[in-house]
Write a structure and sequence with these properties.
Length: 225
C-alpha cells in the first residue's frame, strides 16, 4: 500500500515538473516572437520616414534649381559691347558697356572731357555699336564737325561708317590717330582740302604726298567720306 502511494505521488510529480517546463518554454517562445515582431516594426519605420523625407527633399530641389537657372540665364542674356574712346578725354582707352549704352556713358567711363574738348558737337544721346571708335574733338576742331557729316545723328549712321574717321571733316588730331598718319601727313590732308575741296572717294587720299598704297591699305577700313 505504501509502495502504491509512493508510485502515485512520484507519477504526479513528474507530470507537474513536465507541465512547468512546457509552460516556461512556451513563455520564452512567445516573448521571443513578440520581441521579434516589435524589432521588425521599429526597423521598418525609419526606412519609410527616410524615403518620405527623401522625396520631400527631391521635390524642393527642382524649385531651387529652376530659380538658380533663371538667374544664370538673365546674367548670360546681358550682352556687352566694347568701344574705343579717344580725343579730348581724360582717360582714353577701350571700355566695356552694356549693349544699349549711350555715347555720354562711354565718355564718362573715359574720365569725362578735358578743358580743350568741344562735346557740344557730339550727339551724346546716340546708342553705341560694338567695336566703335569715339573721338571727342577739341574746340579748335569744332568748326569742321557736324553731326550729319560724322553720321552721329540718332538712327542716321550705318554699321559701315559708324566709328570711322571722315577725312573730309576730321581735324589734325583725329587724323593723327590713324595708323601711319603723323603730324606732317595730317597737315597735308588739311591743306589738300583747302586747295581742292572735299575728297570724292577714300582712294583720293592717295593723292597726298607720302600716302600711297601701303599706307592706304592700313587706313582704308578706318576712314570714310
Amino acid at each position: 500500500m505504501k509502495n502504491g502511494w509512493k508510485r502515485w505521488i512520484r507519477g504526479w510529480s513528474l507530470i507537474v515538473i513536465l507541465l512547468s517546463v512546457l509552460s516556461v518554454s512556451g513563455c520564452s517562445v512567445s516573448e521571443e516572437d513578440g520581441l521579434q515582431e516589435v524589432t521588425e516594426k521599429v526597423s521598418q519605420e525609419p526606412e519609410v520616414s527616410q524615403k518620405d523625407s527623401g522625396k520631400s527633399e527631391d521635390q524642393e530641389k527642382p524649385g531651387q534649381t529652376e530659380g538658380d537657372t533663371d538667374t544664370g540665364s538673365k546674367k548670360s542674356a546681358e550682352k556687352k559691347i566694347w568701344v574705343y574712346v579717344c580725343g579730348a578725354v581724360n582717360a582714353p582707352g577701350v571700355y566695356e558697356l552694356k549693349e544699349d549704352a549711350r555715347l555720354y556713358e562711354a565718355i564718362e567711363l573715359a574720365g569725362g572731357v578735358n578743358q580743350e574738348a568741344a562735346p557740344e558737337v557730339l550727339n551724346q544721346a546716340r546708342v553705341l555699336a560694338d567695336g566703335e571708335r569715339i573721338y571727342v574733338p577739341k574746340q579748335d576742331e569744332a568748326e569742321s564737325y557736324s553731326l550729319q557729316d560724322q553720321g552721329l545723328e540718332s538712327n542716321a549712321g550705318t554699321a559701315d561708317t559708324r566709328g570711322k574717321i571722315n577725312i573730309n571733316t576730321a581735324g589734325k588730331e583725329e587724323l593723327m590717330t590713324l595708323p601711319g598718319i603723323g603730324e606732317a601727313k595730317a597737315e597735308k590732308i588739311l591743306r589738300y582740302r583747302e586747295e581742292h575741296g572735299a575728297f570724292r572717294s577714300i582712294e583720293d587720299v592717295m593723292q597726298i604726298e607720302g600716302i600711297k598704297e601701303g599706307v592706304f591699305n592700313k587706313i582704308k577700313e578706318d576712314i570714310t567720306i
